[in-house]
Amino acid sequence: MDDIIDLGECPGCKQIVDITRPNEYNSVKCECGIVWCSECKKEPHWPMSCQMAAEWMRRWQQHGIDADEHSQRLREITCCCLGPPILFGEAEKFAECKNCNIGFNPQTMFIETRGGHPCRKIEKFRSLSDRILPNEYVPPIKKEIVEVSYLICQKARSYRFDITKLNELEKASRKLKDAFAGLEKLRDIRQTVLYIIEYGMAWVHMEKNLSDRASIKANLSQLLRQYEEVIAIIDYQRSNFNDSVDSLNCSVQKAVEMIKRHV
């Protein structure tokens, strides 16, 4: 059967993009660099379903909320940049998108600095969704994931939103493009590696009946270590850099194939 091409709008630059269906990973990428799930319009979360990813994100966000806030109803806002959902107690007077680092007062929705001062240009925070979560028990992340899986997910997410490291990579890529072909490849696979580590590890935690859980977790942990080794040297000019990037690319493909056997 031939693929079907749908038209969709990039949530960032609003450009019209082609969306191929069926899409094995439900992932769409615009020329501007923004990537999103073609089904739920949030960040890519393969191998998790949209429903599972939403449940995971609720647990993830609640893990970072102080215990005294659990008596409040929780409010969830999704920024127009498609960063991770912003979760906070409904009485809070400051919240911030961890992706674009824009802060705002949830009571007025005006953009503010962390100190509560209005920005020079008065404008409202733009959101894709804004809702109060049902006042019901949401299972917290268990101790086991705090010790292992949560920390790995947290690391991968931090690397994904690390603007300093990304800018460093972009500068090195422009400067050394002809000498180090691996830089261009690293730019291409960086997001894929970090998405697979973060959501792959979360998926393993949520899917309790996986027969290969230990192997997949070990594989994803090793993938994170490989990524850290590749980006460890600032100038990317060590002699084996291209080989290291090729090895990283092979490892992420291996991780994807291992996960696909269970999805």
Q: Count structural domains.
A: 3
Instruction: Describe the sheet with the most strands.
Output: 3 strands, antiparallel
Radius of gyration: 20 Å
Strand coverage percent = 5-15%
Mean pLDDT: 80
Question: Given the C-alpha coordinates, what overall shape results?
Answer: globular
Number of DSSP-assigned strands: 9
Cα-to-Cα separation, first versus last residue: 22 Å
pLDDT below 50 for ≥5 consecutive residues: which ranges? 65-70
Strand order of the largest sheet: 6-5-9
The number of helical segments is: 6
Subunit organisation of the chains: single chain
What would you call the structural class?
Answer: alpha+beta
N-to-C SSE string, H for helix and E for strand: EEEEHEEEEEHHHHH
